[in-house]
Amino acid sequence: MAVESQGGRPLVLGLLLCVLGPVVSHAGKILLIPVDGSHWLSMLGAIQQLQQRGHEIVVLAPDASLYIRDGAFYTLKTYPVPFQREDVKESFVSLGHNVFENDSFLQRVIKTYKKIKKGLCYAFVWLFPLTAQQGAHGLPGRKQL
């Protein structure tokens, strides 16, 4: 009986939300720190849609990035890193080649571990200087947000 007493209330509330949602919603600022490669390429459509809906998008990327470039629908800000584009490209190429090698299971596990470790080091090198500048690590003597 309780279900019947609600009648069309959920439908009316849903329609009201659809009609008034765009009117009362506000666009905001979005900061993206994407990963180079297919992750970034897959995000471009979503970023474009967000920009069309009024969001201001800033993409933060290392200057050694392979695929992240200036775009018409976002602002790109780069920061220096201690490696070159060639180093990043070599990492991507070796990752692709290792898929087709006929190694033992243990050798594949060890190689995968080393690649993940190297990738995490790249990510740390990319992100630590940015967060340390803002005091996100809580290090003494650093400027706080």
From TrEMBL:
Coiled coil (residue ranges): none
Per UniProt, the keywords (alphabetical) are:
Signal, Transferase
- Cite the GO molecular-function annotations of the record: UDP-glycosyltransferase activity
Enumerate the SUPFAM superfamilies for this protein: UDP-Glycosyltransferase/glycogen phosphorylase
Signal peptide extent: 1-27
Q: Tell me what this protein is called.
A: Bilirubin UDP-glucuronoslytransferase
